[in-house]
Structure formats: structure tokens, C-alpha cells
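Hello K.,

You asked for the raw outputs rather than the summary table, so here they are, unedited. I folded two proteins back to back in the same session to keep the settings identical. This is the first:
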Amino acid sequence: MGQVGILALQGAFAKHGEALDRLGVAWCLVRTADDLAGVDRLIIPGGESTTMTRLLRTEGWWPQLKAFAEQHPVMGTCAGLIMLAHALAEPDSRVAPLGVLDVTVDRNAYGRQTESFSAPLQTSAWPEGAPFQGVFIRAPRVTACGPGVAVVARLGDEPVAVRQGGWLGLAFHPELTGDDRFHRYFLDAC
């Protein structure tokens, strides 16, 4: 495996770097379209999907990011899941999803910042062992999955981690937990 890129427009990108450091994986920050040439997979962190879209449009490299995402493994967490999605439950012209992961998401569906929470998640990625403690901050909800999408983790009956080929979308923030199993899963399985 080559180097992992972490989209560093805004959001908790540094925490993803810390997780990759713990796993001994080479990584770099991706701040321009040219930076994509040096990576073979990408992490799109949480943050704010309208801000990410605005910055990508302002800098003019949304098309290059979309082309990269169509051909490479990408993990998106929280706002990153929104950016990977095929559609938004309530279309918003300020957000331009990349359309690679065949899911529909509802932005901020788990509540406002003050309603953030942490909860144990059951996962099919590693059915044995301790549940993964998901951290949900203004998290999106997956409202529909296409036929090629596998649900990897659930919060109750709701999908909160989904995978389609090399794309992994998480409604929560694994980088804030110190538990690197989802980062390892992305590196090994996607």
C-alpha cells in the first residue's frame, strides 16, 4: 500500500493522522488537487460539508477530487460521508456530494452540536470483540442504501457505517476514540 492522503481543508484531519501514525502507515495532508497524485487512498474527515464544498469550488478542484474518488478507496467520516454520498435527503445547493457511495444521507439528522453523544456500535467488520464506541457530532443519518452497499455497523436498527467496494462511509468520528479498528478496516478491507 502506498501513502494515505487526508483531505485537509477543515475538520479533524490531524486526528486521522494520529490514528494512522499509531498504525504505522505513511500519510500526508491533501490541500490541493496536485497532492492527490501522491496518494493511493484518501480520508475525508468530519467538519462541515457546506464549507468543504465552498472551498473545493473556490479553489477549483472539486472535479479532480471527484475523479480521484471514482477510482480510489476513500473513507468519509461524518461530513466526509455526506461528501461521498450519492444524494442528500434534502437537496442543498451549498453541498456538492461526490456521488460515489450509493447512499442517501440526511445532514445533521442526529441533532445539533449540544445533542452530540457516544454509543456502542455492533459491527459486522469484526463480529467478535468489544463493540466500537461511536462518537456522533451533528451526525448525518443514512436514510437509504443502494443494492451494492453493505451495512458494516448499526446504531440500534440504523446503519451508521456503510461500505461499497473501496468506499467506506461512517456517520461518526472514529478518529476521536483512540480505537483504530475502523482505520485498520479501511486499510485492509477497502
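The second followed immediately with the same parameters:
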Amino acid sequence: MKSIIIFVLALFVTSCAPIYVNYDYEKTADFTQYKTYNYYKDLETGLSELDTKRLLNSLDMSLQAKGFSKSETPDMFINITSSEYIESQRSTVGVGVGGTGGNVGGGISVGIPLGQSNVNRQITIDFIDENGIGLIWQAISETTYNPDASPEKRQEKFKAIVDKVLSQYPPK
């Protein structure tokens, strides 16, 4: 029984890939003046149309929970870009063969990768004040991405990303 609990706990921990986020912001911006937002009309997120809707829905819910409202004449615009990349495999097993004879030496070595490579996704979210300073806040998130995930899992992942990204907005 104890081994089953440990296995389930290990499976749970490894299935929850961490979300890394880097933040940057304009120090001279007065973040208390921003109450309304909207997205650029020509928003090209780099995501599929359905994933874009999932991400925007998560952003809308989180921003409205923080007291923001969507407007046709917003205080700030939001721009989103993303990219995917395959992380190179770090775990390998080395196999080597070597020999010497007299004053001659030689060897062969081969690295065999363990497991499979991870597909990662980087999403950049910019808050832009077009009537003043320009870019006022930026968050860049990185996490693993499963292209075969169900729609429910994708929605959960986008909600987790948005929650982590907006946890540092407004900056203190």
C-alpha cells in the first residue's frame, strides 16, 4: 500500500510541470491609472484559434477579477506572442570502448539519450499604453507543452499560466 501511495505522489509531482515567468516593467508608469484594457485587433498569438480563445478567456476572467474591465477605448492594450521549441535531451548514457597496445591508444564513445525531448512553449504578454509611455509591463512564461492534450487540459494549463503571470501585476 505504501508503495502505491509513493507511486501516485511521484506521478502527480512529475505531471505538474513548473511554469517559469520573467517580469519587467516601466518604473515611471503609474499602474493605478490603468483600469480598462483591450486586445489589439490584429492579434497574432502564434497559437491555434482555439488555444487563442482559451488564453484570452483565461486572461479576461483573471483581469476582471482584479477589477479591470474591457473597453473599446482602453487605458492599455494587450499584445500576446508565443513560440514553441524542443528542449534538447539532457540525460544520456555514455558507452565507451578503448584499447592500448604498446605506445598506441584509441577509443570510441557514444551518448545514448534517455527518455524523449520536451516540447516547450514560451508566451509573452505585453501591456502597452499607446497614449503615453508605450510598453509598461511584460511577462514571459515558459512551460512544457503537450500537443496531444485534451481541450480540458489545455484550458487548465492556460488558466495556470495566466494565474502565475498575473500574480505579479501590478508591480509593487
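The beta strands are 20-25, 36-39, 69-70, 76-87, 92-101, 104-113, 118-129, 134-144.

Happy to rerun anything if the numbers look odd on your end.

Regards,
P.
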